Amino acid sequence: MFLHLPVLGDESVRAAEAAECAGEQDRFWEYHDTLFDNWDGENEGAFADTNLVEFASIVGIDEAAFVECLDSRRYLERIGQHRQLAESINVSRTPTVIVDNQIIADLREFETYAEQLELAILRRSE
Fold it and tell me: Terminus-to-terminus CA distance in the chain, angstroms?
C-alpha cells in the first residue's frame, strides 16, 4: 500500500494530489518519479501548478483531463486520511517502508529494501 505523507507544506500536498490525478491515467509511478526528479527544495516553487501540469505532459498524460482532476481537488480528503493514518502508526518521514509491522524509515537504496524484504520472506517461511 502506498500512503502520501505531504510533510513539506502546501506544495507537497498539491504534488500528492497531482500524483493521484496521474494515477487516473495509469501513470502514477512515472509521475511520482518525475516529481522526485524535479524537487529542488521545500516550497521553492518546484511543485507549483504550472510545473505539475508540465510534468504531466512529460509523462504523456492527457493534459485537459489532468487539469480538470487537479482543479477539482477530489483527492485532497484521501491525502489527509493518508497523513492521519501515517501519523497514527508513528510514520513521520519519507520514505518509510513497513515490512512485517516493522518500520524501516528513511531508506534511499533499493538494496536495503531488498535485504529487509528477503529477511521478511525468510521469517515467514520458518
Answer: 25
Cis-peptide, bond into residue 95, ω within 30° of zero:
yes
Region of residue 95 (phi > 0: left; psi between -120 and 50: alpha; otherwise: beta): beta
- Rg, C-alpha atoms of the chain: 16
Q: What is the DSSP string of 24-35?
A: TTT-HHHHHHHH
Residues facing residue 98 across a β-bridge: 103
Instruction: Tell me which amino acid residue 123 is.
Output: R
Residue 78, amino acid:
R
Question: Looking at the DSSP assignment, which residues form a beta bridge with residue 105?
Answer: 96
DSSP secondary structure string, 83-99? Answer: HHHHHHTT--SSSEEEE
Q: For the chain, which residues make up each domain, given as ranges?
A: 10-87, 95-125
Q: What is the pLDDT of residue 105?
A: 59
**What CA–CA distance (Å, rounded) separates 16 from 124?**
33
Q: Count of alpha carbons within 13 Å of 65, Cβ hemisphere only?
A: 11
**pLDDT (tens digit per residue) in 26-63:** 999 999 999 888 877 666 677 889 999 999 999 999 99
